[in-house]
Structure formats: C-alpha cells, structure tokens
UniProtKB/TrEMBL annotation:
Organism (species): Cordylochernes scorpioides
Membrane protein topology class: Multi-pass membrane protein
Residue ranges of the TM segments: 267-287
Major place of residence: membrane
Organism domain of life: Eukaryota
This protein's name: Protein ST7 homolog
One Pfam family it belongs to: ST7
Lineage, uppermost ranks: Eukaryota, Metazoa, Ecdysozoa, Arthropoda, Chelicerata
Subcellular location: Membrane
C-alpha cells in the first residue's frame, strides 16, 4: 500500500511539474512560478525532483533576483546536494553587483574589492563543482541540445545548464567578462583537482565502483518516476568522489559531441627539461662511480661518434674554400 501511495505521489508531482515547465516554455512565467512554489510547499521532502532548479530558471527569466536569492538561501546549504544551477546561479548573483564596473587592468593595479573578491570566490566554487560549464557559457565550445540524462559534475550537466542559463548570463552586463577573466584561477587554487578538492570531493581517475551503480540506476529508473533536473532531464545522482564518467559509454551525449574532461595542470617544458637533464646527470655520475673503466670506454666512444660529423664538415669546408683563404683565417 505504501509503495502504491509513493508511486502515485511521484506521478502527481511529475505531472504537475511538467505542466509548470510547459507554462514556462509558453511564456506564462507567473503561472509557472506559482505552480512550482505550490509543489514545493505541498511536497517539501521531494527535493529529488529538483523543482527548485526550474523555479530558479523561471525567476531569472523574470529578473526577480531577490526571489532567486531567497531560493538559494534555502537550497544552497552544506547539507544538501549541489548542482551546477545552484553554484553558478550563486556566482551570477554575486557577479551581478560588480561585473558592470569590473576591469582586469584596474583590478590588477588597485586589487580586488570585497564584493569583487566574493564574486571571484563564488566563481571558483562553481568551477570546482563543474569545470566544464565556463567553456559553454563563454561559447568556447559549441552547444548541443541537452541529452535526456545528465550526470552531475559532468559534461552533460554543463551542456544542460548552459543551454537554459546562457541568456541569463548575457543579460547581466559584464558577467561573462568577469567569468572569462577569473574562472581559470580555480586550477591555481587546487593544483591537483583529481586528487584533492578544496570545497567539494575530488574527481578521481578510477570510477569503477560507481559504474555498476549508475548503470543500475539508469536501467531501473523509468522516465515517469525518475528524478528530474535541468530542463526536465533525468539526473544521475551526485555520488561522493564521482569521476567525470565516460558519458559516451552511457550514451548521455551524441557520438559527434566531444566530451569535456577535467582540465589537467600542465607543467612547463623548461621544468620537464631541467628535471630530465638532472636525472640523466645523476644517473651518469652513479654509473661512472660504480663502473669507471666501462664508462670511460663508453665516453670515448660517444665523443668519437660526436666528432665524426664535425670532422666531415671540416673536410667539406677545406675542399670547397681555397687554401689561401683558410690560411688567412687561421692567422686571424
């Protein structure tokens, strides 16, 4: 009996939520917001449907930023699961107060103000949660239609978020410029994001433990009863330490789409070259100390090999240039 009641409740919430989303698509924003608020008030425990994310998007379209801040104050809690919508909307609201006057040149000379520092920290927090979103918001990567299923902290969630929220970022003057100037600073703050996070769990290389769980969820959830997220897309839960999963393997994104990966910190060539040269020098010194005679023979052989091209070039030069010119050059 309880299972039937729970199923019927899920169906009811799902249908009402879809009606609210249809009203949003038809431009009936106030009606959509009212339906979503009523649902959240009537079923406060069903956060798994992420109705608040759809409410945030509708309120942003209405430019009711105070109401958006009130929703974030309730759902951007340390004990509640995060999403790209929560983190990036919080960053957008903080950037809204400073982005119109923000200039990288001026900021580098006088430093960041308190409000600007808060906005930058919010951007760093959002980028740590999902580092794929900025490239879509800044249109460095082409957008595609959001997939049916999305993976939190993955490329599919970034596509879905940018698809529905890019107009809101463009509407706030200077917000995308502030994002462009500051988002890469996140990787200086967490130099090894795949091993250790700052505000969130890291995204490890190995995710075999989660593969079976995720596939099981995808196979067991039905489109009618499964929890929905951005734009009505089914969410694959945010497990602690979840890796950017091979989304093509799960069919989340089409085959032609190049799935983003977590940016890795690349060492400069000079550091790599210096490390290799020092290692080689130490190895040669150790071998020379242990095997002096064989290493001496090897060194003489290497020197003779290296001198062969030089001798060959000198012979060619002597054959081409007149002997008088060579005599004058030797006197100089």
């Amino acid at each position: 009996m309880l299972c039937v009641t729970g199923r019927d409740t899920n169906v009811l919430v799902y249908l009402k939520r879809r009606l609210a989303m249809c009203a949003r698509k038809l431009g009936k924003l106030r009606e959509a917001v009212k339906m979503m608020r009523d649902l959240m008030k009537e079923f406060p425990m069903l956060n798994v449907f992420n109705i608040h994310e759809n409410l945030i998007e509708a309120l942003l379209e209405m430019q009711c930023y105070a109401d958006v801040q009130a929703v974030l104050a309730k759902y951007d809690d340390i004990n509640l699961p995060k999403s790209a919508t929560i983190c990036y909307t919080a960053a957008l609201l903080k950037a809204r107060g400073v982005s119109d006057k923000f200039s990288p040149d001026v900021a580098s000379k006088r430093g960041l103000s308190t409000a600007e520092m808060n906005a930058v920290e919010a951007i760093h927090r959002a980028v740590e949660f999902n580092p794929h979103v900025p490239k879509y918001l800044l249109e460095m990567k082409s957008l595609i239609l959001p997939p049916e299923h999305i993976l939190k902290r993955g490329d599919s969630e970034a596509i879905a978020y940018a698809f529905f929220h890019l107009p809101h970022w463009k509407r706030v003057e200077g917000a995308l410029n502030l994002l462009h100037c500051t988002w890469e600073g996140t990787f200086r703050m967490i130099p090894y994001p795949l091993e250790k996070g700052h505000l969130f769990y890291p995204l490890p290389h190995l995710y075999r433990v989660h593969r079976q769980r995720t596939l099981a969820r995808m196979s067991s959830w039905s489109p009618a009863y499964g929890p929905k997220g951005l734009g009505g897309h089914l969410l694959l839960g945010c497990l602690p330490g979840l890796q950017l999963m091979d989304q093509k393997m799960y069919g989340l994104c089409p085959a032609f789409h190049e799935v983003s990966v977590y940016p890795k910190k690349e060492l400069p060539f000079f550091i790599l070259f210096t490390a290799g040269l020092c290692s080689l020098t130490a190895l040669l010194a150790l071998l020379t100390h242990q095997y002096p005679e064989p290493m001496g023979v090897l060194a003489r052989t290497v020197v003779s090999w290296l001198s062969l091209p030089v001798s060959f070039l000198l012979d060619k030069v002597e054959a081409v240039l007149p002997s008088s010119l060579l005599h004058q050059l030797s006197r100089i």
